[in-house]
Amino acid sequence: MTPSRPSGLRPTPGRAAWVFGLPLVAGLGWTLFSRLRVPHDLTPPPALDAERRTLNGRAGPVNVYVAGSGAPLLLIHSVNAAASAYEVRPLFEQYRTSRRVYALDLPGFGFSDRSDRDYTPRLMTDAVHDVLDEIALESGESVDALAVSLGGEFLARAAAERPDRFRSVALVTTTGFGRNEQFYGGLGSTRGRPGIKRAYENPLWAQPFYDLLASAPSLRFFLAQTFGSYAAVDEGLLRYDYPTSHVPGARHAPFAFIGGLLFGADIDRVYEALTVPVWLAYGTRDRFTDFGDLSNVERRPNWSLTPFDTGALVYFEEPARFTAAYDAFLAGAGAG
């Protein structure tokens, strides 16, 4: 005789429907909350207290902050769901007293154009060239430039294409150096697929999904991964991330990012093509970026490497040590 199951454990149709219906109910609830309660038209304040210019070049309307006088220094932020020039704020404030500093909002972020278009390494690199054009018109001098995380790939690409415009390049916790990563694809190829971004952009779930990524708890969580801990998160950056990620069109560039369309499948070729002095400064506690294989650049005479026991945004956590090391690099490169 087959023993009977306790009635409380029987997989009845009603109970199964309730269990499997939970995700659907939760999804519908969040979609309704997203539509009715989440703001999508906030106006963030400027990320930096500086002159703002809108350039209209290859990349369409892009915003650049400008301050100070002296030799030009270009700063470029990273790419994430809430990226903006605020990410380079400590460096902007540090160097505006001695340099002519430019801080770019990459296409799809900050006060740059956020329309629904193809966000690619080419578009981002063209934005860098647009700022270089502006600097050339203003001073005609070659540029020291620094970029963070994935922004470093765009800066490196621009420097490989126009080395004559650069005195030096600094890459802070930039991408493409993970263990067992080899990116020697065709020139201009990426690591993503357009179909992935199209799936994210489905009007049924695009905005609710992005609102989940850009919710206050999610922003704090991802910043904690970037900084290496919750305690290290810069509260000013966290406060700015919410309004800058809740403006019209905010989701389009981040969807290209999470779909892999902004990562160069050829980036090892690009790094190895650099002829200007390059400083790679990286935080060892960033939980998104792996520096397990630096073999293709660590012995190149124009490359200098400095690890820091910090998260990705080294200069937020160790500003004095970082700027001392950067200044030493600039002096050694003849760019100080």
Automatic annotation (TrEMBL):
All copies of domain AB hydrolase-1, residue ranges: 73-324
UniProtKB keywords: Plasmid
Pfam families to which the protein is assigned, alphabetical: Abhydrolase_6 (PF12697)
The organism's place on the tree of life at top rank: Bacteria
Tagged with keyword Transmembrane helix: no
Protein name: AB hydrolase-1 domain-containing protein
Signal peptide positions (record): none
Organism encoding this protein: Deinococcus aetherius
